[in-house]
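Input.
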Amino acid sequence: MRKWIAAMLLVAVTGITAGGQQTGVRTRANMPVPPKPDEPVPAAAMRVYDLGDAAGHLNVGPLVSLISTSIRVPVTLVSDSIFAVMATPEEHAMVEHLVASLQEQRAAELYRVEVVAYDVSADRTPALGAPAQVEKPMVRVQHNLARARKTQFEATVRQTYIAEWQPVVSGNAVGYQPVVKTVSSGLDAVVVVAGSGEQLDLDVTGRISKADVKMVEQPLVSGANLTMGLPVTQERSVQARTRIRPGVLTVISVTESLGDAGSLVVAAKVDRAP
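Output.
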C-alpha cells in the first residue's frame, strides 16, 4: 500500500509515471494499481531535515505545507532552513524524493541580472531600495545565472604602463629594458540570486576600482630621462544582500564616490531569463 501511495504522489507532484514517462494528466492507463492491503505497516519515526544553503531558493515554508498536504504526515517548521517530519521509512523516502525534485527544478531556473555603478552628487544620493535613475553609468554588466549559484561578474578596463626600466649591459654599451605591468578599473563581484515570485533575494559581494596612471620622469646617470608610469588606484567594496522586485532597477549599495565628491551608487535588476 505504501508503494502505491508513493507512486501516486510521484505522478501528482512531478507528472512522471512509474515507467519514467512525463505526463500532465493522470489517466486510468498511467495510474498505478493499488496492491492488496496485506503488507505490515512500518513504525513511524521523527527525522530532521536541514536544507542549509538550499533553503533560500527552495522556500521551506511552502515546501512544509506541500509535504503535509501531499504525503499527509506531521511536519514541524523548526527554522528558516530546518523542519522535522514524523513518518514511516517509505514516507521519509517520499519526502526526500519531493525535496530533490524541487531542488532540481529550482536549480534549472535562469535569471538575467544587470548590475550598474554610477556617480551622483551628494544632494542627489538615493535611498537604499529606491528605483535607480541612471544618467551616465560608470560600469554596466549583464549575465544569465542559475538560481542560488555563485556567478562571477566582471567588467574591467585594463591599462598597461611601464613600471620601471632595468639596465641591460652588452659589451661596452648600456641600455634599458622596460618592465610592463597592468592595472584594472571597474567592477569585480560575485552575484547570487535566491527567493522566488515577486520577491527575489540578491547577494552582491565584490569591489569597484578606478585606476589612473601618472607619468613621471626617471633621471639617468647620463643626464637623460626615461618616462615611467605611477599607478594611483582607488577602491570601494560592495557588500549588498537585499530583497528586490523582479524587473525593477533597484539601489542596493551607496558609498563614497571614487571622484572628488558625491556618492557611488550600485543598482541591480533581476528578470527571468528568456
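Confidence is low (pLDDT under 50) at residues 1-32.
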